Amino acid sequence: MDKLNIHNEMKQFDRKNRDFYDELNDEERKKFSTYLMLKWGANIDSNDSELAGYYVIAINENVNKHFFDINRHPKLQWLSCTTVNPLKDTHRHFWITPRKKEGTGRSKVRKQIMEMLPGLKTDEVDLLLSINDDEEINQWLVTHGMTDKEIKALYKK
After folding, report:
1. Number of alpha carbons in the 13 Å side-chain half-sphere of residue 59
2. Full DSSP string of 119-131
3. pLDDT confidence band for 101 (50 / 70 / 90)
4. What Cα–Cα distance (Å) separates residue 137 from each residue in 114, 122, 133, 146?
5. pLDDT (tens digit, 9 = 90+) per residue, 2-25?
6. What is the DSSP string of 66-86?
7. Distance between CA 129 and CA 137 in Å, rounded?
C-alpha cells in the first residue's frame, strides 16, 4: 500500500497517528507535504455543520496559526495536524481550490479601500467586495470623497 496518497494520509490525520511521520523513510519524507495536510484537513464532507465548522477553527488554531514558524520541523507540523480531530473517526476530506486573482480594476479598488480603511483586515475587505457590486462600491467611494474620474482610473487596466 502506498503510504503517500492523500486518502491514506488523511486517514492517518484523522486517526491521530502521531507515529506516521516517523514511519516514513527518508525518500517518503521528502515527498510528504504537511502543507497539504493543512489544506485538506480543514474541510470535511459532513452533514454536521458544527463538526465541519469545528475542523476549520481547529485547523486554524492548532495548525495554521504557527505553521510557517515551525517550517523547519515537519514532524512538529505533523504532530500539530494530529490534534485537529476531536475523536478518532475518519472523514472524507476535500480540497478547496483557491480563488482566482481578480482583474486589475477590482484589485486596485481593493487596494484603495484598504488605504481608506487601514483598520480592516484583508479578509474583511474581501468580504466587503464580495457582498457589494461595483455600483455599491463606487457609491461608497464617492461618499468617502473620491471623484468619478478617480474611480474610473481604478478600473483602467
Report:
1. 19
2. TS-HHHHHHHHHH
3. low
4. 13, 16, 6, 11
5. 899 999 999 999 999 999 999 999
6. GTTTTTT-HHHHHHHHTTS-S
7. 7
Grid cell at residue 22: 516517523
In one-letter notation, the amino acid at residue 19 is: D
Other residues' Cβ atoms within 10 Å of the Cβ of residue 20: 21
Q: Which residues contact 116 (CB under 8 A, 6 or more apart)?
A: 144
Give the tens place of pLDDT for each residue, 19-28.
Answer: 999 999 999 9
Length, in residues, of the chain? 157
Cα–Cα dist 83/2, whole Å? 24
Q: Render the burial of 88-112: b for 16+ CB within 10 Å, e for the rest.
A: eeebebeeeeeeeeeeeeeebbbeb
Residue type, 145: G
